[in-house]
Amino acid sequence: MAGTLFVVATPIGNLEDISARALRVLREVALIAAEDTRHTGHLLQRFGLTTRTTSFHEHSVKGKAADLVERLKSGESIALVSDAGTPTISDPGTHLVRLAREAGIKVVPVPGPSAVTAALSVSGFEAPQFAFLGFPPSKGSERRAWFDKLESLSRIIAVVGFYEAPHRVDATLAAIRRQLGDVRVVIGRELTKFHEQIEVGSLDGLTLETARGEYTILIEFGHQTESSITPRLPSTQLVVAEFGEITKNRAMTRRQAISQLSRKYGIQARELYALLEASKGSPV
After folding, report:
1. 53-55 sheet: strands from edge to edge
2. What is the CA radius of gyration of the chain?
3. What architecture is the 4-113 domain classified under in CATH?
4. Domain ranges in the chain?
5. Exposure string over 110-135, b if 16+ CB within 10 A, otherwise e
6. Separation between Cα atoms, residue 183 and residue 201, nearest integer Å
């Protein structure tokens, strides 16, 4: 009989947040697949657990996953853990879960701590729709596309959450201010740890004590501050002029320009096309 793959959430800081069920599972499985065996070793030692561990991080996922599935098929049960929080949420492990399911292995969640839901729970934000975007890309076109996606989500999602590294948090918050205005945010630093800091308010009114530790950021789109609300569509003349400028010397095709302007001003591409067509001397 095949074993079971347990996806086990572990504390994001305060070790007292681990559940009794998580401890039992970690004690009873044959093996723990850990993002960092040293980090997980401290947790196991704290609670007197002696279960064997094996490293399973982003650089070993594909090579290790097949071996772990074979062990599951042979009857061993395995616990998948990340360094902190719930595995596969911006952590390695998705590939293993997918392979296990394809092999007919039972996959069982053992829920628990998660930084993004912890921040949301104390935000006071109403979130009938909530999106989690992981980590923003660090540079280049991928980063610009990420912020474009963030702006597009602002029209359909109440709250968006993501994580950010301390050395990029200031630049990311500045980019959000440029792209979205003075939106309401939650900035959580070192959640559940000794130096925990949680700030809630308009982006312009918040000050980070220090750019250290892990950051969880939420943006509330449902209640923008007055300074964040800007006209989405200027005059037809200005739109036509902007369209002409960005297609000048074939720097961008007409289709690309319409797509960019429709995202920028929050209108359908076909509506923008019709507006340009209807204008005198339209370049379309």
Report:
1. 53-55, 31-34, 78-81, 4-8, 106-110
2. 24
3. 3-Layer(aba) Sandwich (3.40)
4. 4-113, 116-228, 236-278
5. bebbbbbbbbbeebebebeebbbbee
6. 8
pLDDT value for 283? 45
Asked if residue 225 has pLDDT above 60, the reply is no
3-class secondary structure, 211: coil
pLDDT tens, residue by residue, 169-185: 988 998 888 888 889 99
Short-list 224, 15, 199, CA closest to 122: 199
Residue 145's H or E segment, with its range, is: helix 140-153
Q: Which CATH class is domain 116-228?
A: alpha beta
* The model's pTM: 0.74
Summarised one tens digit per residue, pLDDT across range 118-145 is: 999 999 998 888 999 999 998 888 998 8
Contact of 117 with 89, CB cutoff 8 Å: no
To the nearest whole number, what is the mean pLDDT of the chain?
86
End-to-end CA distance of the chain: 66
d(CA 169, CA 214): 10
CB proximity list for 264: less than 8 A, separation 6 or greater: none
Closest by CA position to 2, among listed 66, 76, 64: 76
**CB 191 within 8 Å of CB 171:** no
